[in-house]
Amino acid sequence: MPDTPAPLPYLIIDFDSTFTQVEGLDELADIALTGQPNQEAVVAAIRALTDRGMSGELKFSESLRERLALLPARREHIALLVERLKGKVSESIRRNRGFFEQFPGRVYIVSSGFREFIEPVVAEFGITPEFVLANTFTFDAEDHITGFDTTNPLSQDGGKILQLRQLDLQGPVYALGDGYTDYQIREAGLADRFYAFTENVTRDAVVARADEVLPSFDEFLYQNKLPMTLSYPKNRIKVLLLENPDPRAAELFRQEGYQVDTVPGGLDEDELAARIEGVSILGIRSKTQVTAKVLEAANRLMAVGAFCIGTNQIDLVGCMQKGVPVFNAPFSNTRSVVELALGEIIMLARRIPEKNPKMHRGEWDKSANGAFEVRGKKLGIVGYGNIGSQLSVVAEAIGLQVLYYDVAEKLQLGNAVKCRTLDELLQQADIVTLHVDGRQENTNLFGADEFARMKPGALFLNNARGHVVDVSALAAVLRSGHLGGAAVDVFPYEPKTNQESFESELRGLPNVLLTPHIGGSTAEAQRNIAEFVPERIMQYVNTGNTQQSVNFPNIQLPEQQAHRLIHIHHNVPGVLASINNVLAAHHVNILGQYLKTNEHIGYVITDIDKQYEPEVIQALREVEHTIKFRVLY
Ligand SMILES: NC(=O)C1=CN([C@@H]2O[C@H](COP(=O)(O)OP(=O)(O)OC[C@H]3O[C@@H](n4cnc5c(N)ncnc54)[C@H](O)[C@@H]3O)[C@@H](O)[C@H]2O)C=CC1
Ligand SMILES: O=C(O)CCC(=O)C(=O)O
């Protein structure tokens, strides 16, 4: 835990849009006008006045007077407002409730809003009425709100300045808020620093004048070495997304409070090495190579997300040795690839790749030459994993007889027949489709020999990885007429962006369907991937859970108890004992401990009591063979 500076400066915190996510008066109008036809229009008018007042465009006193003139509220509406506001406390304030409780008497809520609704909301954070400085409503005999107490300094222009002068605080004062009136406290010399709070709203005029911009209250606590709920402010976590994953991914990361940068298309090794400094989370698809050189430049990398199935483009061992787990989306686009393969099989069997361009050129070529039904034909699936086995089921439904070959033992689905060798499959199949993974040993798995062993006139599909097939050998058997056609979605070299042209020997060959690596490019798959991968990564960041990481020992953790220590180390004997020796020497009580190792690394999670001396953290960082260490509070 960071050391607390003594004494803690006085904190002057604004209420509307800072302590809470919303403006109290806007919400009060919304409540008071529920069910009225003019609700939307009046609330919008009040909001506009609030905004003009907050950005300094309109005199504050005018903005307040005009808003109250529009407000048709009564005393009973205030109780409803309080309940609503309790549910709208800013996320980072809510999560750091413990901080407010720990420092009674140092935090003032100074607001141009109204005491009647502020007091009960901040009371839940241990802030008592004498530390709330705000306006007060006036009411008529029927409890209608009629206006505000005009003798209150906060109802006047420069009200916060007047109020701070009256307070006459001795010692450093920091002001936090989203509005111009908060900045004015600093301008008048009544605060030593002004922090523009942008978690809920960003006003350029206010940000421009701030000493610091705070995307969250965590950032304030972190900068000032004050006790906080998180070990690290989320707004400091930088995400770099390449190759256009669905925008939902960026949205989820932003919702979590991370900073997100996107680069359309891919980056080559040098470009990525130059961009990766300071990046905590890297998101890529199939093209970007995460190499040793890239990892060397990655000084803050916490996790890599492959927004796809294949992870052959990533140096998985290199990541592991750097303490970086990699997460992919192992089944989010499976069905999309299966549907594409099935469509391609039928298109090739009917020689559509030749007929379609002819029609576009005005040529009517009605003939049955070389066209056949797929019913009863033998489909040979090479690689019977998630995609291969799903294709097996769907293909049988349209009458194909399935043969498969896999290097691993696999559950045989439906009536599929297992082949003991690749040769056995090649000799029988009318259609051969590749669904192996992209491991290096699969480079040129299909070359001249394998094609020669296929039946004359057979069809060939590669939706797996480009380097798995010798493209020149494929082009030769298509030109010679030995194969009846091919569909290819993946290539040894693929253009980096849609602006780069596609070069291949396969271009222009008869009955060849070429697609630009779109096997998984459907709305459904991309949306699923864009949710699946960020969820895994955020779970890892927040809890240490490595479930479904492709390179890390998988640990699914129970709910965190008190503090959680996350320790990644080289897998050599004695590290766990060293960790526990440090804990024992500092009399730290262990509530739970979980360890998993693989041949390279060990991953230990230790939940400990809330009470511990800060030196224990440094001592754990210094344990020999540590790769990475972090604490979750
Ligand atoms: N075109 C596209 O857009 C897409 C392509 N893919 C590619 O498809 C591949 C397969 O995906 P999944 O089925 O989800 O993976 P998976 O890991 O479930 O299945 C791969 C299977 O291939 C087997 N295999 C590996 N090498 C082999 C070999 N030499 N001979 C026979 N079997 C072998 C494995 O034992 C495993 O059963 C991915 O790794 C990826 O490269 C995946 C999604 C989209
Ligand atoms: O859509 C992509 O970028 C890659 C799809 C793919 O090849 C995969 O999921 O492995």
UniProtKB/TrEMBL annotation:
One Pfam family recorded for the sequence: 2-Hacid_dh
Designated name of the protein: D-3-phosphoglycerate dehydrogenase
Entry keyword set: Amino-acid biosynthesis, NAD, Oxidoreductase, Serine biosynthesis
Free-text function comment from the UniProt entry: Catalyzes the reversible oxidation of 3-phospho-D-glycerate to 3-phosphonooxypyruvate, the first step of the phosphorylated L-serine biosynthesis pathway. Also catalyzes the reversible oxidation of 2-hydroxyglutarate to 2-oxoglutarate.
The UniProt record lists the keyword Hydrolase: no
Residues making up the signal peptide according to the UniProt record: none
Reaction equations catalysed: (2R)-3-phosphoglycerate + NAD(+) = 3-phosphooxypyruvate + NADH + H(+); (R)-2-hydroxyglutarate + NAD(+) = 2-oxoglutarate + NADH + H(+)
InterPro entries xref list: ACT-like_dom_sf (IPR045865), ACT_dom (IPR002912), AHAS_small-like_ACT (IPR054480), D-2-hydroxyacid_DH (IPR050857), D-isomer_2_OHA_DH_cat_dom (IPR006139), D-isomer_DH_CS (IPR029753), D-isomer_DH_CS1 (IPR029752), D-isomer_DH_NAD-bd (IPR006140)
EC numbers, comma separated: 1.1.1.399, 1.1.1.95
